[in-house]
Write a structure and sequence with these properties.
Layout (H helix, E strand, L loop, with lengths): L4 E2 L5 H4 L15 E6 L3 H5 L1 H9 L8 E6 L5 H9 L4 E6 L5 E6 L2 E6 L4 H9 L5 E4 L20 H8 L7 H14 L6 E4 L6 H16 L1 H10 L5 E4 L7 H11 L1 E2 L4 E3 L4 E5 L15 E3 L3 H25 L4 H6 L1 H19 L7 H13 L7 H5 L2 H8 L1 H10 L4 H16 L15 H8 L13 H4 L6 H15 L4 H8 L1
Parallel strand pairs: 1-10, 2-3, 2-7, 3-6, 4-11, 7-8, 12-13
Antiparallel strand pairs: 4-5, 9-12
The structure holds D-mannonic acid.
Family: Belongs to the mannitol dehydrogenase family. UxuB subfamily.
GO biological process, one term: mannitol metabolic process
Organism: Arcticibacterium luteifluviistationis
Length: 494
């Protein structure tokens, strides 16, 4: 092995004998996409699809300029710049096969807090055809209790007063679209790639609410000209740890300070409505469809909810990762029974999809022993996830008289998890959630009032009024708080 090599454009020539490297001319890449929210997922998914397209050598129009809106993005901004925006994607197969590839589709990154005008210029540039987003549910700035835009957010108030000093995505999009309108340029498409249902509709609703307050005429232009395709995105992408950096160092003597690890599976289903052209992504396997709803419902209710079922129960028991949960037959069976008995009946049939095969494939994906996806990542932001992933299934079963046992057990387990702070191995449980304090406070009143947690109505809506549900919930709360171990309770239910 030669001496350690830093990942950057200059070193690609020497690296390419060992690792697959970009073969297109990165210097000639135009920025066609500005992407806000560069994390692991964007880099394993959209940026990878674009990279594959560029590898076909038909177009150089779709380079990606990343944007970080938060001060917390400073570190990645520095790393990406130092590495000429290159990073390594490590694809871990269940068999142990590993594919390692340097991805070159990102050709710039702007830290918005330092240079907000540069972000606006980039978004307003004639070459930019798409602004895509992975800003998480919280980034959409809606009020969870009524789904409307939250004008009380101080950042939103500030940018409404000072449109030329944007802070949130809404300030940036509105101001950049204004610049385009004034320059007589066509708008860009706003492409949400967040894991939320009807993500494009959500982006449209929130942006229009903001723009309307700022400039009604502009809002009308946005409504008439900008498109917001809904998309379903899928690729399991655990948090990068030192393991990946060590792997590259030990195997290739390569120093990459921010690689990405993911599973081999990848899927992107997109509504084909782009205001200003789009990359021909069908050439690399992206599915363009008139309506993504069936795909997103299936994915969110089975994959994401399945993850949460394993994550919450596994975290309580002390299983560190999703694949370890799947190695435990009780956890694997519990999750499958939740899918079979509670999700499948309410999903009905989805045209063109074999749900049994889909569930089998999820089991295989979750069990991949080389994707050590931490239960901590899955449990993070459960307050944004469970109301979308699991509670609708429960509500539909309550309405139809279907089984509610598994979903109810998970809500009781979530309460127990939010209350305890330690797992069954006496290890601390770190809760990462925007509602962390509220969750803990409500859950810790459970001993005096077994339904206390359900009083968080912005999460549970009116579930507390349904006797069939609360009877079951109380039964599970009592069982969990007897502390005989979650695993034996789950075993008793399967
Ligand atoms: C996970 C998702 O965050 C979660 O709870 O279920 O991040 C999941 O890994 C992705 O949606 C897979 O596409």
């Amino acid at each position: 092995m030669c001496t350690e090599m830093e990942l950057n454009q200059e070193n690609l020539a020497s690296l390419s004998s060992q690792i697959t490297c970009p073969t297109y001319d990165r210097k000639k890449l135009k920025t066609g996409i500005v992407h806000v929210g560069v994390g692991g997922f964007h880099r394993s998914h959209q940026a990878y699809y674009i990279h594959q397209l560029l590898e076909k050598h038909d177009t150089l129009d779709w380079g990606i300029c990343g944007v970080g809106l938060r001060e917390g993005d400073r570190n990645i901004a520095q790393i990406l710049k130092k590495q000429d925006y290159l990073y390594t994607l490590i694809v871990q197969h269940p068999s142990g096969e590993v594919n390692t590839e340097v991805i070159g589709s990102m050709n710039d990154f702007i830290l918005a807090v330092d240079t907000p005008n540069l972000v606006l210029e980039k978004m307003a540039h004639a070459d930019t055809k798409i602004v895509s987003l992975t800003i998480t549910e919280g980034g959409y700035n809606f009020n969870p209790s009524n789904g409307e835009f939250n004008f009380e957010n101080p950042d939103i108030q500030q940018e409404l007063q000072n449109p030329d000093k944007p802070k949130t995505i809404f300030g940036y999009l509105t101001e950049a679209l204004k610049k385009r309108k004034e320059a007589g340029l066509p708008p860009f498409t706003v492409l949400s790639c967040d894991n939320i249902q009807h993500n494009g509709d959500m982006a449209a609703k929130m942006l229009l609410a903001f723009a309307q307050k700022q400039d009604a005429e502009l809002a009308k232009w946005i409504e008439e000209n900008v498109s917001f395709p809904n998309t379903m995105v899928d690729r399991i992408t655990p948090v990068t740890t030192s393991t990946e950096m060590d792997y590259l160092q030990n195997t290739y003597d390569l120093k990459d300070e921010w690689p990405v690890v993911c599973e081999p599976f990848i899927q992107w289903v997109v509504e084909d409505k782009f205001a200003n052209g789009r990359p021909p992504l069908e050439k690399v396997g992206v599915q363009f469809v008139p309506d993504v709803s069936p795909y997103e419902t299936m994915k969110i209710r089975l994959l994401n909810a399945g993850h949460s079922v394993l994550g919450i129960t596994g975290a309580i028991h002390g299983h560190a990762t999703i694949n370890v949960c799947m190695e435990d037959a009780v956890f694997a069976k519990f999750m499958r029974q939740y899918m079979d008995q509670e999700v499948t009946p309410v999903l009905g049939t989805i045209e063109g999809m074999d749900l049994e095969k889909y569930k089998d494939s999820l089991e295989e994906r979750f069990a991949n022993p080389n994707i050590k996806d931490s239960v901590g990542r899955i449990c993070s932001e459960s307050s944004a996830k469970l109301p979308k992933f699991l509670i609708p299934t429960l509500q539909e079963n309550l309405a139809s008289g279907g089984s509610i046992d598994f979903a109810t057990f998970i809500l009781a387990a979530w309460c127990y998890y939010s209350d305890k702070g330690i797992n069954e191995k006496n290890e601390p449980l770190e809760i990462i959630d925007a509602m962390k304090d509220e969750l803990h406070e409500a859950a810790s009143a459970t001993k005096e009032d077994s339904l206390a947690f359900l009083k968080l109505t912005k999460l549970f809506d009116n579930l507390i009024d349904n006797k069939r549900f609360t009877d079951k919930y109380t039964e599970y709360i009592q069982k969990l708080y007897q502390e005989g171990g979650i695993r034996s309770l789950m075993e008793g239910m399967c």
